[in-house]
Amino acid sequence: MSIITKLALAAGLATALSSTALAQDISGKVIGFSQIGSESGWRAAETSVTKQQAEERGVDLKFADAQQKQENQIKAIRGFIAQGVDAILVAPVVATGWEDVLTEAKEAEIPVILLDRGIDAPEDLYLTSVASDQVLEGRVAGEWLVNEVAGEDCNVVELQGTVGSSPAINRKQGFEEGIASASNITITQSQTGDFTRSKGKEVMEAFLKSSNGGADICAVYAHNDDMAVGAIQAIKDAGLSPGEDILVVSIDAVPDIFTAIAAGEANATVELTPNMAGPAFDALAAYWADGTMPEKFIITESKLYTAADDPEGEYERRKGLGY
User: Fold this and answer.
1) 116, 112, 99, 101: which is closest to 39 by C-alpha?
2) What is the β-pairing status of strands 297-299 and 128-131?
């Protein structure tokens, strides 16, 4: 079965779960949510939407902010287990180091659902993983750049996410796949901006200084919009025009990047929906109702947005989501 077929089936299942489980009642359930932190606007929106989804369904959500530290997440999960919660949601900060604590949850018969990131651990340690196809996101960004430069030589600088995180690994792989057929496009520098706006700006400033003031850079690819927004400020500070002198493509589709696209300072973004909790709650509802086991991977939709996709309207539609 091809990956596309798997994704189509998974997406179909996500839709089916949504419609089926709407009738299920999970009100009164106590669910722990270990969030990575608030390193980006998208992360803040995911937290906000998760709390909204819990409130709408009558779920008592126990929230723990790990401040981007795995040890804090492990401590929070053990706390949830001690409290005897009905289920646990985890947005894992890194991919490794989860086997012990998830084994403890399994032994306590508490289902665990991963949100927006994968882990390197046996699949029987979690009920399902709700996430986008991060490799596809990077590939879409790369293919957009191939079409945009239309055969012209293009040196790309890359702002990676947190080292060791699955989005950083997968979005890098996907982008490289997207530009693989274009010998005119070269990634000349690549460094982590840790998914933050301030670090994205700092790293972009260093890229500009080492690239003839930016004259040798054709495009910046950022693993998230916040780093792209930081890079845009660095490009402007260097006396260049982001979006024109240096193309800007990134991932997440947060409101601020639509403001930048509307102003001509960014060129494209690939959407990552912050509503990972909705499909997770649907899967839990069906599981608790009749033991229905969800697919191991529930894939959310991604979409490419450019200046042709009503950026002002997209900003208005997203600004109230907690970004």
Assistant:
1) 116
2) parallel
d(CA 228, CA 259): 12
State the amino acid at position 303 in one-letter form.
Answer: K
Cα–Cα distance, 253 to 135 (Å, whole number): 16
Give the confidence band of 3 by pLDDT, cuts at 50, 70, 90.
very low
d(CA 219, CA 206): 15
Count Cα neighbours of 92 within 13 Å in the Cβ-side half-sphere: 26
Those residues with Cβ within 8 angstroms of residue 4's Cβ, 6 or more apart along the chain or in another chain = none
**Directed axis angle between helix 255-262 and helix 225-237, to 10°?**
40
SS3 (DSSP) at 125:
helix
Which pTM was predicted? Answer: 0.75
Six token digits for residue 194: 């840790």
- Confirm if 145 and 179 have CB atoms less than 8 A apart: yes
SS3 label, residue 162: coil
Q: In what order do the strands lie in the sheet containing 247-252?
A: 185-192, 154-160, 219-222, 247-252, 268-271, 304-306
Q: How many CB atoms lie within 10 A of CB 278?
A: 22
Relative to beta strand 247-252, strand 219-222 is: parallel
pLDDT of residue 93: 92
For residues 133 and 263, the answer to whether their CB atoms sit within 8 Å is: no
Phi, psi (degrees; rounded to nearest 5) at 169: -65, -50
At 144 the pLDDT is: 98
Q: How many Å apart are CA 228 and CA 254, to the nearest integer?
A: 11
